[in-house]
Structures are given as structure tokens and as C-alpha cells.
Amino acid sequence: MSRLRAVWRLALLSLVTPPGYLLHLCACLFGVRARAWARRIWARTVIRILNVQIETRGEAPHTPFVLVTNHVSYLDIIVLMASADGIFVAKSEIASWPVMGFLSRSAGTIFVERTRKSQLPEVLGRVTKTLASGTGVVFFPEGTSSRGASVLPFKASLFEVAVQAELPVHTASIRYETPADVTPAWLSVAWWGDMTFFDHFLRLLTLPRIRARISFGAAPVTGDHRKDLASEAHRAVTETFEPMAECETK
Q1: Is the peptide bond before 168 cis (omega within 30 degrees of 0)?
Q2: CB 101 within 8 A of CB 122
Q3: Span 53-73, average pLDDT
Q4: Taking Cα atoms as reference points, which of 166, 185, 184, 167 lies closest to residue 176?
Q5: Where in the chain are the domains?
Q6: What is the pLDDT of residues 2-11, one digit of tens each?
Q7: Which of 92, 181, 184, 190 has the fewest beta carbons under 10 Å from its own?
Q8: pTM surpassing 0.70?
Q9: SS3 sequence of the chain
Q10: Which is nearest to 158 in space by CA: 214, 104, 114, 221?
Q11: Does the domain formed by 2-247 have CATH 3.40.50?
């Protein structure tokens, strides 16, 4: 049954993604709100296919905004896209992944090679342009995904965007749960360590359902320097963060 579920979901994702991409291209002709609507429609369709039940605590920020969260899985992008109107900054490796790479490219994700510091001014320029258009920007300052046991230290470089745009930084935290009789979320949803993408993605497709909880911070954080912002944002994310229960004894 689980294998059949995975095959069926993969087929559905393959069917809905090209029309979603075309919808987004058409929406670009009608401005920021139309593009945001197209992205959200596509993300919510993917969420329904994967049977992800999203619980939201607090209020998502209004555009334009800078939003940072902890990073647990490539699924974070889809879950957040279904809940907040923003463009994502993600590591460049995602662009070449099967299925998820096309999904991310279709949503207008800004890809960055984190090992190439020389690329940072270009990325900052693209993000600044995105904010100026009235769109939100979301990034994961941990720089990598984790099993969801704690919030990893934040890298400060991308916080320069908020400083230059004179915008506060909104925060949120994400956690996942799976049914008690299947592989726990820290192994089946969280993507970390030496897990290979293809095997992990197939395993995720077999899950009967996934519960995602997004906890938005009560108030944004501010600062005049990117390192100060990174420190304050880390504190705020940690305040709302809930470790995945399965990690506590591991």
C-alpha cells in the first residue's frame, strides 16, 4: 500500500507541476499579487497530494517582509509557501534535485552557493529587488537542515538584506509529526546527515500523512548590524521552537 501511495503521489506531482509553472509565468504578467496567488495555489495543491496538515500559531507577516526560520527539510519551502507569500533563498544544490528542484525553480526560488562568498553581492541584489517589488523573502540562516532537535547557530550574511532595506526580521519555527505507527518525523521528514535525497524523498511519499506546525514569532526583531540581527533572530526562533519529540531521547 505504501509503495502504491508513493507511485500515485509521484505521478500526481508530475501532472500538476507543469501547469503550476505555466500559471506562475502567466501570473507574472499581472503583478506581485497574482504571482503570490499562483505560488500559493501550487503549494497548497502539493500539500494536498502529500496529505500534509498544517497548523499555524501566530500570524504570518504581511508583504514585503524578511522571514527566517529553522530548517528541517526541503518540505519546509512548500509548507511555508502555502502559509506566507514569499520568495525563498535556498542552497543551489536543490535546483538540480529531481522533482523538488523543478518545484523550487517553478516558485521563483533564489539559489545561492554558500561556499562562494563572491556570489553574495549578487544574491543580496536579487533579494533587495524582490523586496522592493513588494514581495516577502524567506531564508534559512542555519545554512543546512537538521533533525529538528535544536536550532543551529545562524549565519549572519543574508541578514544584511534587512539592514539595507531597513526592514525588521520576522521569525518562525517549524516542526513535523507523523502517525505513531510509521517512521518518526526526525527520520522520515527531516533531511539531515548523510541521507540521500532520492531515497529520502521516496520514503516521504509513502507516509500516510504529515502534521506540520509553524509557530510565528509574536513580534519581529530589529538591529543596525547583521550580526546583531542574526543573534536576536536566533533567540526569537528558539523561543517558539519545539524539538521533535522523537529526538529528545536520541
Answers
A1: no
A2: no
A3: 93
A4: 185
A5: 2-247
A6: 889 999 998 9
A7: 181
A8: yes
A9: CHHHHHHHHHHHHHHHHHHHHHHHHHHHHHCHHHHHHHHHHHHHHHHHHHCEEEEEECCCCCCCCEEEECCCCCHHHHHHHCCCCEEEEEEHHHHHCCCHHHHHHHCCCEEECCCCHHHHHHHHHHHHHHHHCCCEEEECCCCCCCCCCCCCCCCCHHHHHHHHHCCCEEEEEEEEECCCCCCCHHHHCCCCCCCCHHHHHHHHHCCCCEEEEEEECCCCECCCCHHHHHHHHHHHHHHHCCCCHHHCCC
A10: 114
A11: no
188, 207 Cβ separation under 8 angstroms: yes
Which tens digit of pLDDT belongs to each residue from 200-218? Answer: 999 999 999 999 999 999 9
User: At which residue does the C-alpha cell 520568495 appear?
Assistant: 87
Rounded to the nearest angstrom, the gap between the alpha carbon of residue 75 and the centroid of all alpha carbons in its chain is 7
Cα dihedral across residues 151, 66, 217, 246: positive or negative: negative
